[in-house]
Amino acid sequence: MGMLIWGGATVSLAGLAGLVWCILKVWRLRRAGLSDTELRAGVQAVMPVNLGALLLSVTGLMMVVVGIMLG
How would you classify residue 33: left for phi > 0, otherwise alpha for psi between -120 and 50, otherwise beta? Predict the structure, then answer.
């Protein structure tokens, strides 16, 4: 079960890294002084990556919980 826990922790950290990347990307877009339409388009482009990173993080946390419960 240790492998499931450590694997889940790795997956969760990868998702967290993706979330941090999304935050930094949107922060840079906001500081660039773009118009409302350009900013909206930039945020919409980041949204699928954000949702994927969130899914990855949740999946990793579920793996950790299942590993702890089975262990």
Answer: left
Q: pTM, whole model, 2 decimals?
A: 0.87
Contacts of 57 (CB under 8 A, 6+ apart): 11, 12, 14, 15, 16, 18, 19
Quick one: the chain helix, strand, coil %, rounded to 5?
90, 0, 10
Mean pLDDT of the chain: 96
Q: How confident is the model at residue 1, as a pLDDT?
A: 87
Q: Please, which residues have CB within 8 angstroms of residue 45's CB and are 6 or more apart in sequence?
A: none
**Are 50 and 22 a contacting pair, CB within 8 Å?**
yes
